[in-house]
Automatic annotation (TrEMBL):
<dbReference type="GO" id="GO:0005524">
    <property type="term" value="F:ATP binding"/>
</dbReference>
<keyword id="KW-0378">Hydrolase</keyword>
<feature type="domain" description="Carboxyltransferase">
    <location>
        <begin position="24"/>
        <end position="302"/>
    </location>
</feature>
<keyword id="KW-0547">Nucleotide-binding</keyword>
<dbReference type="InterPro" id="IPR029000">
    <property type="entry name" value="Cyclophilin-like_dom_sf"/>
</dbReference>
<keyword id="KW-0067">ATP-binding</keyword>
<dbReference type="InterPro" id="IPR052708">
    <property type="entry name" value="PxpC"/>
</dbReference>
<dbReference type="GO" id="GO:0016787">
    <property type="term" value="F:hydrolase activity"/>
</dbReference>
<protein>
    <submittedName>
        <fullName>Allophanate hydrolase</fullName>
    </submittedName>
</protein>
<dbReference type="InterPro" id="IPR003778">
    <property type="entry name" value="CT_A_B"/>
</dbReference>
<dbReference type="Pfam" id="PF02626">
    <property type="entry name" value="CT_A_B"/>
</dbReference>
Length: 308
């Protein structure tokens, strides 16, 4: 039982929940950029929450299937078709042997997730299938190699019932986004005026967005503290370089950096941000760590997420 790649791009990769415990060696977490879409893709198929999916940045993907199985598409709306007929995302889809699935360019959002019932039968590298190209890890061969046309991805067989994500949980990627910021220990080193402006005035998402980070622009110009020193960079860290425009760091970020950090945004905020088009209004709201921990605990309980 397998999926055969008919069309792909270097931006397409296998991603699961990420690779943890290796940042001290300079190895990135990798993992799904939009964690909520990733979780929903597996929920639709009753897969364990961390099961690897295909992360398809920018659309332009096509594949055929060798056997009957069930799949799901979440994330960006890419005008998906099955044998030339439109199919809806955010629902599970019954596939027959020989079917052709094709994704066009995204109409809303940037990244689509394709999951298969049972998951992909590939060997993990350092405990994860997630592709980290800079580190040469993950993917179908364990070395971060890009997918190729005619690539065969084995699938573990599993039968599941049809499901759909409740409409209230399907995101609208055309709306402005509000990022939940948990202030870090450097937050108070920024001036009171900058701390106030951060939550009072919106920024815009620039065109500089990828799996490493997203640069904001056209908002209040922040003045970072004068002292810079290298320190670990957690997922969702908000750095402020000398030009005063914040950068939100994502899954493929570096492990150390010297720019001042306002704090971190939560994983849901990261996914919401990376799915937005350039020019989207982006705001910040301050939240307490305990409140976000409680929120993520509820999310983890719903999806059955296990701690890494």
């Amino acid at each position: 039982m397998s999926l055969i790649v008919e069309a792909t791009s270097p931006l397409h990769s296998l991603q699961d929940a990420g690779r943890f415990g290796y940042s001290r060696f300079g190895i990135s977490n990798a993992g799904a950029a939009d964690l909520m879409s990733f979780y929903w893709a597996n929920w639709l198929l009753d897969n364990p929450a961390a099961t690897a999916t295909l992360e398809l940045v920018g659309g332009g993907f096509a594949c055929t299937f060798t056997d009957n199985l069930t799949i799901a598409l979440t994330g960006a709306h890419c005008g998906a078709t099955l044998n030339g007929l439109p199919v809806e995302p955010w629902v599970s889809l019954a596939i027959k042997a020989g079917d052709l699935l094709r994704l066009g360019s995204p109409r809303a959002g940037r990244i689509a997730y394709l999951s298969v019932a049972g998951g992909f039968d590939c060997a993990p590298a350092l405990g994860s299938l997630s592709v980290a190209r800079r580190d040469g890890l993950g993917g179908w061969d364990g070395q971060g190699t890009s997918l190729q046309r005619d690539q065969v991805l084995p699938v573990l067989p599993r039968q599941v019932a049809q499901k759909a994500v409740p409409r209230r949980f399907v995101p609208d990627y055309r709306r402005p986004v509000l990022l939940n910021l948990m202030p870090g220990f450097e937050f108070e080193q920024f001036s009171a005026a900058d701390r106030s402006a951060l939550t009072a005035q919106p920024f815009q998402l620039s065109r500089q967005v990828d799996r490493m980070g997203a640069r904001l622009q056209d908002g209040p110009v922040l003045r970072p503290p004068g002292i810079e020193y290298s320190s670990p960079i957690p997922l969702g860290a908000v750095q402020v370089p000398a030009d005063g425009n914040p950068i939100v760091l994502m899954r493929d970020r570096q492990s150390l950096g010297g720019y001042a950090k306002l704090g971190c945004v939560c994983r849901e905020s990261i996914g919401a941000l990376i799915q937005r088009p350039a020019g989207t209004a982006v705001g910040f709201t301050r939240v307490e760590v305990a409140a976000m921990q409680a929120r993520m605990n509820r999310v983890s309980e719903f999806f059955g997420v296990r701690a890494p």
